[in-house]
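Page 42, continued from yesterday. The earlier attempt failed because a stray header line got pasted into the input along with the sequence. Redoing it now with the clean sequence only.
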Amino acid sequence: MAGDDLGSLLGGLLGSGNGSSGSNILGALLSALGKQGGDGNNPLGGLLDTLARSGLAEQKDSWVGTGANQPVTGTQIQHALPDETLRQVAEESGVTPDKAADELAQVLPRVVDKLTPDGQVPAGLDELARQQNQ
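This time it went through. Structure tokens are written below.
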């Protein structure tokens, strides 16, 4: 799936308002994760695995699950993501790494929740797009 398509998908999930900023930062994050190895077709799964391994499993599980979403802070995001990934996201989004982490902390719980409506992580970006277009 092309980056523009991913950005459009994320923007639609976030709605108008701060959607463009949030979709840009999330698109940059998923793109950076896809470029750094792992399953390039499922950067969402890779992101969630990274968060879980970094001590945010409880928060991640709340976003994927059907209950209330637990919050996360920018500081927690900074500690969870590799420095290079956060720098890449910040550069692509035109913000500082601190600002990128803060923005991700605001939008990740909501977007992951919307991307996993049945409590299951989609197998890949193509499946994400199909789910959202139904």
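Notes: DSSP finds seven helices and no strands in the chain.
Reminder to self: strip header lines before submitting.
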